[in-house]
From TrEMBL:
This is Pyridoxamine 5'-phosphate oxidase family protein. Keywords: Oxidoreductase. Pfam families: PNPOx_N. Residues 27-108 form the Pyridoxamine 5'-phosphate oxidase N-terminal domain. One of its GO terms (molecular function) is coenzyme F420 binding. It comes from Nocardia bovistercoris. InterPro entries: F420H2_bilvrd_red/Heme_oxyg, Pyridox_Oxase_N, Split_barrel_FMN-bd. The lineage of its organism: Bacteria, Bacillati, Actinomycetota, Actinomycetes, Mycobacteriales.
């Protein structure tokens, strides 16, 4: 599996589209997890890049984090509001590990406060998930062509063009 910093080196096109769309939506993405019965769940999430990792953290005791505790696999999709996908969209696939390092949690909380004013500095984290990526793709429309860029670890990005 691939860390965020490795991913940005190996898949610069997809990383750029993800970053652009992530910022454009105020960091909002849609997280797909698996429920206990195996059916999919889609939940909003504001993932953050922190200390070269893609971090999936948020409100404690949410069902999406219970899902990840049981099955660490996920898909993260940038929020799309344009049916023509004019600014592209991106999907990241992978699995999470739960990091229990309280000093890391404190640094994350301080950074979040410094950047947004949202204060969780005195709270204990139930989960601090770090994503390891197993694949990614983007969709962009350029000159009336649909360009799908695909990446898997150990392989270069490749583009499939649809007319």
């Amino acid at each position: 599996m691939t860390t965020w910093s490795e991913f940005t080196e190996q898949a610069p096109t997809i990383a750029a589209v993800f970053t652009r769309r992530h910022r454009a939506t105020g960091n909002l993405c849609m997280l797909a997890t698996l429920r206990a019965d195996g059916s999919p769940r889609i939940s909003p999430l504001e993932p953050r890049i922190f200390e070269d990792d893609l971090v999936l953290a948020g409100m404690p005791n949410t069902t999406k984090f219970h899902d990840l505790s049981r099955d660490p696999r996920f898909c993260l999709h940038t929020a799309t509001v344009d049916t023509m996908v004019g600014d592209g969209d991106a999907k990241l696939f992978g699995a999470v590990t739960d990091n229990h390092d309280e000093s890391l949690h404190r640094r994350f909380a301080q950074s979040l406060f410094d950047e947004t004013g949202f204060d969780i500095r005195d709270q204990k984290f139930d989960h601090y998930y770090i994503a390891a990526l197993t694949g990614a793709s983007t969709v962009e429309v350029i000159d009336d062509h649909l360009l799908i860029t695909i990446w898997t670890p150990g392989r270069a990005e490749h583009v499939v063009q649809k007319h």
